[in-house]
Design goal:
CATH topology of chain A: Amino acid/polyamine transporter I
Helix content of chain B: 40-55%
Number of helices of chain B: 16
Shape of chain A: globular
CATH superfamily of chain A: Amino acid/polyamine transporter I
Largest sheet of chain A: none
Structural class of chain A: mainly alpha
Helix content of chain A: over 70%
Largest sheet of chain B: 5 strands, antiparallel
Order of helices and strands of chain A: HHHHHHHHHHHHHHHH
Number of strands of chain B: 12
Oligomer: heterodimer
Distance between the termini of chain A: 46 Å
Distance between the termini of chain B: 51 Å
Order of helices and strands of chain B: HHEEHHEHEEHEEHHEHEEHHHHHHHEE
């Protein structure tokens, strides 16, 4: 593999990395979590896109100042060794948490639909091994897998056709039928589905054409928004407000609307193909955690990867109560906000240090 | 390492020989050679009285055709020995090892007693079979000749297709025990020099480490990028037209003495689905066949696993009528679907293997036994369901569709992975297995070049000749995987 070369990511790699890491389990329940705003939710993805694009600015600005360093190195450089490493450990925990939450979510969905009454132990193991296998090839391997996933899982979009045909276009209006608190509730719950583009700061030093990253990352984000937006529109047209509020995974119902003569239940196929989206997301986070450990320990070793995977496997296999899981899942959004806004803080530190240096001169 | 060991063996032999007592400067005597060829009964030492005095000729008669020997050595030496000696190559008379190697290579040594000098004549002419049609890679259109086991014939088959000095063939001797000759062929102005260097480096590495070079397939496995992969990622062909085609595209072709196949590298995954016939038939036919092969590959690895998932875990995914048919046909079957599928897949595999091993006449019986006795009887006995037999037979036929024998084998191997995965987790297992397959293919390289070319790295001009074979006038550039020095086929 090209693991030895430092700069490995081309433009299209960046586009699809950004895009596929974002799409994970979030899309499955997106329309459910947006249900506080009812039918007005269909334009929310556009709002998310704009906000994600705005928050991209400080990330890339900071990364361009430190072209050969990832987020972990920048932390150490700007905040000093101890505080920087402490923040890095928090980031590693954050990556691992998202890693585990995504797998946990997906596996519970699998337990509901595809393989009822089966313990997750064994297929969790296989998913872990596959993730390690992807990460083992480095970031380029992940990027390539993302590209394949885009073309493979992207074909699922076609199954929206039936929902669109049966939907009612009058559901799209009115546009602003909600109160401010409802808006905040929906926004807070829905923006989690945008988790993923903050990884850009970690794989930035591996990108070849760093000046063009903003354009490429924006393209990636807007491809995501295209998928989210089309799913939202079809959901709004197809479902009633009551359904949106009570169906936890509206996409499953959309799949069931598909009528092809040789396939009876599209939802089983859709959910199993979804494993590609899950693998592309979790492998990126595992890679981030591995990079973090490499950075904190000051040496690169593949055993870090194995250790992390075994650790996560054990945690996921532990009988943790649903309440704890739910708490973690609800609060990961705040961590996500923190990571997205973190570059702003780093930028200000960067300015302070620069001024200090100038004063010294 | 081995070379050193061997040299020491030779040296110790020289030292222990009673008459020889050879040192570096001393001349090799006839007795020393005779001693070295001790228990070799086909070694011939013949004395002739000629105009130049007594002459001894030494050769191994199993490697040399007697008419060739007579024509090139014996007859001239009896009639016109002066002239012959001027023509022949002189062998340095102090190097015993080289002399022994020359004789083992099938050359004839000529010793002039008066002058005490050695000469050699190349007389290597072992019995060999004639050029025949290829049985594995047979086509309807196009040239029918195929390589034989003789390196010289094989090189000639290629060189008669590409008449120009740009076609290089570098000879090399590998393996210290077998001393097998290989020839690395490439077009000097097209081939990628980095690839060439890499290949030579790898051959050099295995040359020093391994001893068994019986066939080129062994060399291939030793220099592959990933020995653990189920896929062949070095091409193999017994067809001179295909080898010439690859050479002109900028690949490197390695031929080996005593092996019918030639090694082609680098090759991509999709090239395993190409047959040389694709270029001989019209583009519409070629495209249709290519599509069938490619789709057939995915059907052959997915068909029976899908049956398992559908029957075991998700009867809901297929239409109700089909479920009825499937369930009805396996209502008497006492095994779970995985076992049933594995059983019949293994039977088919056994039939195929038995058919391949047996002589052709008995091989036909195998078809009858397999098809009628096992197939029909097993269904009637209620051991297997007849719909499954249809599916298994289809996937078995599809796996034989691939032009590359190695790829056809590996498609059957990975089918078992999919069957087991489907048996464990149903459709999810299949998707996980597919994910494994994709990651594996994405990371696989052939001689350092990505195996999934032209998709990674992208090369749009390759798409004219990938899944769809466009009319030949569209195919104007060499393939991306060979990273050639000259990209365009036409030089204007």
């Amino acid at each position: 593999m090209d693991a030895t070369k430092k700069k490995v990511l081309n433009g299209y790699h960046v586009v699809f990395l950004v895009q596929n890491v974002i799409i994970g389990t979030g899309l499955l329940s997106l329309n459910h979590v947006l249900s506080p705003v009812g039918y007005s939710q269909w334009w929310f993805p556009l709002l998310f896109g704009v906000i994600a694009n705005i928050t991209l600015f400080p990330m890339i600005w900071l990364a361009l100042k430190y072209k050969d360093e990832d987020l972990f190195d920048i932390n150490v450089k700007l905040l000093g060794k101890w505080i920087g490493k402490f923040i890095n450990i928090i980031l590693i925990v954050y990556a691992l948490l998202i890693f585990m939450i995504v797998i946990q979510n997906y596996l519970s969905l699998i337990q509901i639909t595809v393989l009822p009454n089966r313990a997750i132990t064994f297929h969790l193991l296989i998913i872990m091994v596959l993730t390690v296998y992807i990460v083992y090839g480095g970031i380029k391997s992940i990027a390539r897998f993302c590209i394949f996933t885009f073309f493979f899982a992207g074909t699922l979009t076609y199954s929206l056709r039936w929902g669109l045909m049966e939907g009612n276009i009058s559901h799209l209006l009115p546009l602003f039928n909600f109160s401010f608190s409802e808006f905040m509730e929906a926004f807070h719950a829905g923006y989690v589905s945008m988790i993923g583009y903050e990884l850009l700061m970690v794989y930035f030093p591996y990108i070849i054409h760093q000046k063009k990253v903003f354009k490429q990352a924006s393209l990636g984000i807007w491809i995501v928004i295209f998928f989210y937006f089309s799913v939202s529109i079809v959901s709004v047209m197809y479902f009633s407000e009551w359904q949106l509020e009570h169906l936890f995974y509206p996409i499953l119902q959309l799949f069931q609307a598909v009528k092809i003569s040789i396939i009876e239940r599209m939802d089983v196929i859709g959910i199993t193909v979804w494993v590609f989206l899950i693998l592309s997301t979790v492998s990126a986070y595992l890679w981030m955690a591995k990079r973090g450990i490499d950075s904190v320990r000051g040496k690169t070793s593949k055993y870090h990867l194995y250790a992390l995977a075994i650790f996560c496997y054990i945690i996921l296999s532990l009988p943790i109560s649903q309440a704890v899981k739910k708490t973690v899942f609800e609060n990961i959004t705040y961590a996500f906000y923190g990571v997205v806004l973190w570059p702003l803080f780093l930028c200000s530190i960067h300015f302070l240090r620069k001024e200090k240096k100038e004063v010294v001169k | 390492m081995w070379r050193r060991k061997k040299e020491s063996v030779l040296e110790s032999k020289e030292k222990s020989s009673p008459n020889g007592a050879q040192s570096k400067d001393e001349k090799v005597t006839l007795v020393a050679i005779k001693n070295a060829f001790g228990d070799i009964d086909d070694a011939v030492f013949k004395d002739y009285q000629t105009a130049n005095g007594l002459v001894t000729i030494i050769y191994l008669n199993t490697l040399i055709d007697s008419t060739v020997l007579h024509k090139t050595v014996i007859s001239p030496i009896m009639n016109n020995s002066d002239q012959l000696i001027q023509v022949l190559d002189h062998v340095i008379s102090t190097d015993l090892r080289t002399m022994l190697m020359e004789i083992s290579d099938g050359n004839t040594l000529i010793y002039l007693h008066e002058e005490q000098r050695f000469f050699k004549a190349s007389t290597f002419s072992p019995p060999q079979r004639s050029i025949m049609t290829s049985e594995i890679e047979s086509t309807v259109l196009g040239p029918q000749d195929s390589f034989t086991e003789s390196l010289k014939t094989n090189l000639s088959l290629i060189k008669r297709r590409i008449h120009q000095p740009g076609l290089k063939s570098k000879d090399r001797v590998i393996g210290n025990e077998t001393n097998t000759k290989i020839s690395i062929m490439y077009m000097e102005h097209i081939v990628n020099k980095e690839n060439l260097q890499r290949l030579e480096q790898r051959i050099k590495e295995v040359d020093e480490a391994n001893l068994l070079f019986i066939d080129i397939t062994i060399l291939t496995q030793l220099i592959e990028d990933n020995p653990f992969s189920p896929f062949p990622h070095m091409g193999m062909t017994a067809r001179p037209d295909l080898a010439a085609h690859f050479l002109l595209d900028g690949r490197i072709v390695v031929a080996m003495e005593n092996s019918q196949n030639m090694l082609v590298c680098p090759v991509s995954f999709l090239e395993m689905f190409k047959s040389p016939e694709d270029y001989y038939s019209r583009w519409t036919t070629a495209t249709l066949l290519r599509l069938i092969r490619l789709v057939g590959f995915f059907i052959t690895i997915m068909l029976t696993p899908t049956y398992i998932s559908a029957v075991t875990y998700h009867p809901g995914i297929i239409p109700f009528d089909l479920v009825l048919i499937l369930e009805e046909s396996r209502s008497k079957v006492p095994f779970p679907p995985v076992i049933e599928v594995l059983l019949i897949e293994l039977i088919i595999e056994v039939l195929r293997e038995a058919g391949a091993r047996l002589p052709t006449k008995i091989g036909q019986t195998i078809g009858i036994v397999g098809g009628i006795v096992i197939g029909t009887a097993a269904v009637e006995a209620g051991l297997l369901s007849n719909t499954l037999i249809v599916l298994v037979a289809t996937s078995a036929l599809l796996s034989f569709l691939l032009p590359s024998f190695l790829m056809s084998n590996s498609s059957r191997v990975i089918r078992y992975i999919f069957i087991l995965a489907a048996g464990l987790f149903g459709l999810l297992g299949q998707m996980l297995a597919l994910a494994w397959l994709v990651i594996h293919l994405l990371n696989l390289t052939s001689l350092g070049t990505p195996y999934l070319a032209p998709f990674i790295p992208r090369k749009l001009s390759d798409l004219y000749d990938t899944v769809i074979r466009f009319p030949l006038k569209f195919i104007q550039k060499r393939k991306g995987i060979s990273r050639p020095q000259q990209e365009n086929l036409e030089t204007k």
